[in-house]
Design goal:
Elements: H1 7-11, H2 15-34, H3 40-53, H4 55-63, H5 72-89, H6 98-117, H7 125-145, H8 151-158, H9 162-171, H10 207-218, H11 222-232, H12 238-245, H13 249-269
Length: 270
């Protein structure tokens, strides 16, 4: 008794067969794309089919960069740009599979996206690339010289001016700022950076006034001091103050007005 193929095996071809079919279609489409007698419309159609044919490759590359703060859909879009570049640059005569050629281009485009997103201030691409070059050359020279290279030594090695080296180094200050809400993962329960930043102390604004008014308060009579304390420190009404001090509410009102006017005039004269 022979084993008969299952329904799933009949519907879904083996993986190797699917890969071979993709390679065959890809080669045929690239042949159409590179043929001298192909019309512009046919070229456009072949290019679009190649992109759709290799979108699974883009998704596979994009999934390698998941959980890095960027939505997978955005990474697929960026990777598709790399796929388009690979399609436009691929040459059948290279003798390599298109997927082998396209993968580094797709991954490079995604990495470039992360690098660009890391800059807090928009820096020209030439400075971003120069900064990366400075980093690699600096490590090389540090190893050979046994010390950190000077800007002039970096400039001579890279083939640019000292001013450009300085500009490239300064551009690093615009890279990858940290949110004030970020905390220190190394410590449990550590607060954010924002917690460590001081805030303006509102009481400092009134220090000068308090220090200026102290000698004026000391010069007041005991009854006036007590009325001011009851009114402004205990928040008592004039009626309550009158009952506390043993005078009429009208008298309390006149004493408050007279005392405050006297303090105001004394402060203004000082």
């Amino acid at each position: 008794m022979t084993d008969e193929p299952t329904r799933d095996e009949l519907v879904t071809p083996p993986r190797s067969a699917a890969v071979e079919e993709t390679r065959r279609r890809s080669a045929a489409l690239f042949a159409t794309l590179s043929a001298p007698d192909t019309s512009m419309a046919e070229r456009g159609d072949a290019r679009e089919q190649l992109v759709h044919l290799h979108l699974p490759l883009v998704e596979h590359c994009a999934r390698r960069f998941r959980n890095r703060g960027e939505p997978l859909e955005d990474l697929v879009q960026v990777g598709t740009i790399g796929l388009l570049k690979a399609v436009d640059r691929f040459d059948l005569e290279r003798g390599v599979e298109f997927s082998t050629y396209a993968t580094p281009t797709i991954i490079g485009e995604i990495k470039r996206h992360f690098r660009d997103k890391g800059w807090a201030i928009r820096v020209p691409r030439r400075l971003q690339e120069l900064r990366m070059q400075i980093g690699s050359v600096s490590a090389e020279l540090t190893q050979s010289l046994g010390r950190s290279p000077t800007p002039r030594e970096l400039a001579e090695k890279i083939g640019c001016t000292v001013e450009e080296i300085v500009e490239g180094l300064d551009s690093g200050n615009a890279y990858s700022t940290l949110s004030l809400d970020a905390g220190d993962d190394a410590e449990d329960g550590a607060g954010s950076m924002l917690d460590a930043i001081g805030v303006e102390d509102g009481s400092l604004e009134h220090v000068e006034i308090r220090e200026s008014i102290k000698p004026l308060l000391d010069a007041l009579g005991d009854r006036e001091k007590k009325i001011l304390m009851l009114r402004f420190f205990r928040n008592m009404t004039q009626s309550q103050i009158a009952a506390e001090v043993g005078i009429s509410q009208m008298h309390v009102s006149r004493l408050l007005s007279r005392t405050l006017d006297g303090l105001r005039v004394a402060l203004e004269s000082d």
